[in-house]
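dumping this here before i forget
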Amino acid sequence: MANLNFKNISVCNDISINTPTLGLTYIDYILKNKIKDFFNIKSYNITLYTNCQNEVVTKVPPNYQFTIIKTSCTNPTGSTNLYSLELGGINGNFIQTLEVGFPTPVFPTSFTINPSGTVSFSLLPLLWTTPSFSILVKVTTKEGFVYDIAFTLNQDPTTLCGWDGIVTGLTITYSLPANIGQPNYRGVYATTGSIGFAPGITFIITADTLGTIGNSITITGDALGSDFATLVGAWNSSNPSNTATLSGNASLSVPSDGVNYPMSGGVNQETIPSTLELSLNTLFVLTNLVPALYKVKICEVDFNDNEFCLEGQEFIDCHSTPCVDAGLCDPTEDVCNVILETKKQHEAMIYGLDCCNETKRNLLTHYIRIYCSSEATCL
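structure:
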């Protein structure tokens, strides 16, 4: 089984996973960044575990490369064309229902699965004198995935069966689950942070340019009694390539002469990698990951329900729990409760959960780092 990599694990609000395994770029397939023949792929299943428990499975639709081929045409009423089509790109055994429309509403239609696995079906009768139709074919799979296949059918209105079979403007749309997303690749705008200047007056100044360049901005009170809006405007006039924006209720607030309001926190955006990543925060629906052992398994499921999986796990605390001397933790303090709760989780995993045997060394290392005043003398 190939491995998933956990990236940026020191930042609780922006952790991601990827895989460097050639030929197993499941994340790129899921995010529609790369394509292949998905004909016999039923789904991508992402299984999430927290502390080896709380298993949650998310099914993700494959990016089927649908094809539409005209196979025949008849004239059932003399004034209409009835086109028969073949749908490719998906194994017909995966399909639950097939609907067609012009483009809406759509109506259920019968279909036949061919020996090759493609699907044969017919459109609704079309007036042969109408030159163009917008067609929608809606496919719903047995896994519950819904695909809208739209195209334009252009026919010669001077002859029966005037469509030459050329599909124009083919588009395929479908939705990914809500917890599937990419990281922001660490791009952050610098800010002053929230400024509470007086009761009822709160505002923030934010750099207009993403990255570390905004960290060089400092708004300074002057002897003229200029308010924040004037000072930000003056900065922008003097620094047109590194401007800032004042947001919130500044209400003519005037800082004291010489008092600085520096901006910080700006982080340069990384170049989007050729192999994409999935946001771990989005997967687990957590803005900030709490200290825990996180495990992710991504499986490609084929026609026979065989699974080919990538897997990875990582204990993540984002260095949010401080080191303390044993016996010096005050149970009345919030940080102490966090430490004690984390300790309890560690002990449960180390001594009680068989599935975590392979992670004992990492957990023990983390345990030592948190609870021992001198790591060198802990063992």
